[in-house]
Amino acid sequence: MTMANDEVGGSSQPMLSVRGLVKHFPLKKDLLGRGAGVVRAVDGVSFDVFKGETLGVVGESGCGKSTTARLLMQLINHDQGELVFDGQTVGSKSLPLKDYRRQAQMVFQDSYASLNPRLTMEDSIAFAPMVHGLPEREAIERARDLLERVGLAPQRFAERYPHELSGGQRQRVNIARALALQSRLIILDEAVSALDKSVEAQVLNLLLDLKEAFGLTYIFISHDLNVVRYMSDRVMVMYLGQVVEVGDSEILFKHAAHPYTQALLSSIPTLDPDRRTETPPLAGDPPNPINPPSGCRFHTRCAHAQAICSEKMPVLAPAQHGQQVACWMHVAGAAHTGAPSGQGAVKPLEVAA
Amino acid sequence: MTSLNAAASPVLPLVYERSAGYWETVGRRFLRDKVAVGAALVVLLLMVLAVFGPWLAPMDPYQSAMLKRLKPIGFEGHPLGTDELGRDMLTRLMVGAKLSLFMGITPVVCAFFIGSLIGITAGYTGGWVNSVMMRTIDVFYAFPSVLLAIALSGALGAGITNSLISLTIVFIPPLARVAESVTTQIRERDFVEAARASGASAFTIVRVHVLGNVLGPIFVYATSLIAVSMILASGLSFLGLGVKPPEPEWGLMLNTLRTAIYTQPWIAALPGAMIFMTSIAFNLLADGLRSAMEIKQ
Fold first, then answer.
1. Count of domains in chain B?
2. Percent of chain A scored above 90 by pLDDT?
3. Segment A68-80, tens digit of pLDDT
4. Interface contact flag, B199 A132, Cβ < 8 Å
5. Nearest CA in chain B to A180
6. Residue boundaries of the structural domains of chain A
7. What is the 3-state secondary structure (H, E, C) of B214-238?
8. ipTM, two decimals
9. Class of the A16-21+41-232 domain?
10. Which residues pair with A282 in a beta bridge?
11. Is B14 a member of any domain?
């Protein structure tokens, strides 16, 4: 078998198209067998990841970022929806799950827990290629090459065990492992969040170098907005299992349209005294995903909430600066006083940040 | 100038640096533990006795002498005295090591494999498979082990094979429980997720990533069960459900010598002392292994 993962649909076809992804976790039933409801962890998420880009995914804890990542890796099964990888539906005859897994790999947050303490670094990296039929000698050779590529001298690190490495070194090994199948899509789930700032910067630059060298596509999940801005071409904002805004990174950071995105951005600490925030941009915790608010899920915490927001759920639609946003204030003719009155006339929002 | 450059970029050794693996580290830590090493030596000695006992023993273990019954310790020609049929105690204790250890270790070894298989399967699969398997195991676990061993042996009939079978059944539930709980912990770790994400089959993941992390703790627990198994096997023999006379076995010897407890208490206590020493040695060995394996990483 060949180990190369070839391009299929050309560069304009999205690397990964996600359509209507839903994952509800059932809660434990009580003694009488009555269901106690479900946690709506991911509730109808659709987006595209284009070839060669980095899509940043941001949101508070519990908004479904990590569940989305695990769904994309098919580590858990989705209830509804579809994953289309380079034009082929994942799990269909043309792209069985095992083949998809050669194309997409993931780096986890906890660098220590994601390495088997009983295996040497080269064995950990060589495991996946061997699963896909590469002879052991070649797999070890590839593992040593990859260690070199992620900045770890194989002579020094190939036969080490996880506890002998620092957090940054271990995360480099995890990145090498994700590259071992020559995958085209790498999902980075809080991959640098547990690292020291200085180490984090090194690993981020390594990721950028590797992306260039191997022509990779990244899905970069993080709660750190500065890091997401540095890494991403486009950014997707999630709130309570749904996408509230998605668009080009610079546009989103300069002209955030959704009140939630605005609140998130104004929570970034700043050194500029003129832009210092004195009141917390968001009060309280996000609502319980077991019983999400009706209509727009953000209306319980939104400063601009009106009657329509609790009645009807807004869908993603183009906003003024070209991004997609799910908010009634950006739907022309909607029953919201902030909404643009007529077709095309989008009223500019006063953005504090 | 060249020396400066060399200092700036150290030349990497051509040989791959290799560090001590997990088991090497465990071995080093174990050897530092004097009590555990002592216990290991006693166990080793008993093993040697079990294998070479018949050749090392000074006399024939079946040779009885009516005139020399129940002679005390230090009697001429019998350093540890004689039993109720005038057979040499030292000989019978040495030869008895074979059957006693065999009866103690075999059920644990069998239960180790079967229990690990059940526990790892249940733990890795999870869900309702786990519930069905573990609740079934719990039914057996609910009985006190002594009672279960006696009941099974009684139902199967006396004899060595039957007592081995009943003891194996007794030890499967606790070993399966331990195997299930450690496997459930390992299954949740990210490296198992990563292995699943690489497309490996469940069997491959268990073989490469789970076994190496769970067999150690199960093995330690099994070692501590050997002492219990020895005592239970002796108990079965004592009740006449295990080894049959005239075979030398410590439990059975304890039974046949119990009538002499008022006339020759020291002689009657000897087989019990052997059982005690062996089970203590296995327990200390298990303790030593456990602490040697508790490496903070």
1. 1
2. 42
3. 999 999 998 889 9
4. yes
5. B198
6. 16-21+41-232, 247-269+289-353
7. HHHHHHHHHHHHHHHHHHHHHHHHH
8. 0.83
9. alpha beta
10. none
11. no
